[in-house]
Amino acid sequence: MIVRPKVDAYAEAYSTGEPPWLTALAEETRKVCAVPQMMVGPMEGRFLAMLVYMLRPRRVLEIGTFTGYSALSMAAQLPPDAHLVTCEIDPVHAEIARRHIAASPWADRVEVREGPALSQLASIEGPLDFVFLDADKTGYSAYYDGVLPLLAERGVIAADNVLQFGGVANPLDQNEDTVALRAFNEKVRDDPRVEQVVLTVREGITLIRRV
Ligand SMILES: C[S@@+](CC[C@H](N)C(=O)[O-])C[C@H]1O[C@@H](n2cnc3c(N)ncnc32)[C@H](O)[C@@H]1O
């Protein structure tokens, strides 16, 4: 997180709590996955749910399912006729996500597609009303290029982890993901087709829309 832990804890305490079905998913993820902190967690989960509530999207695409925490956070706020496709490369992650989605009340609205997200993009139908980018950071630039032409006129892309806990602002941080995200942030900033705002929520989230 970028904000001080005490302030972050305060913000979480005064936000609506995590629903029980996500607590069960999070508990299993912490038990069986090597990097459970890949889940967006309660605060960002509530934030995504609020965005979906406000946007009322019909078609949602997520790139980077992991065990389904963000997908189910969003699904709970989808209108009944909406559809969320979420892409995941790892079969173990996809299996956990599918099981929790099947047990949820939103199984009819959420589809997990297994395999590299970039090759899935060819079969994704637009227009997309909301896109959540949260897979491999070195792939963001290609995902952005792939989804922008599919974005609805009033569609929004949310790109996660764009500040890497602040690493992007530290020139000494030459980690591969940080370098890729710096390049991604520059690309979005310099793209005349879009307007964007970089938020300091958790590891940083950029909201992008077409102009
Ligand atoms: C940060 S996690 C996603 C977290 C998830 N949004 C959540 O809140 O639980 C990133 C996920 O992207 C997946 N991934 C990595 N490279 C991918 C690719 N090329 N195509 C699809 N998924 C990929 C990883 O296996 C991992 O499960």
TrEMBL record:
Single GO BP term: methylation
Source taxon at top rank: Bacteria
Keywords in alphabetical order: Methyltransferase, S-adenosyl-L-methionine, Transferase
PANTHER family named among the record's database cross-references: CAFFEOYL-COA O-METHYLTRANSFERASE 3-RELATED, O-METHYLTRANSFERASE-RELATED
Top-level EC class: transferase
EC number: 2.1.1.-
Keyword Methyltransferase listed: yes
SUPFAM superfamilies: S-adenosyl-L-methionine-dependent methyltransferases
A GO molecular-function annotation: S-adenosylmethionine-dependent methyltransferase activity
Full protein name: O-methyltransferase
Pfam families from the UniProt entry: Methyltransf_3
UniProt-listed InterPro entries: Cation-dep_OMT (IPR050362), SAM-dependent_MTases_sf (IPR029063), SAM_O-MeTrfase (IPR002935)
Methyltransferase keyword on record: yes
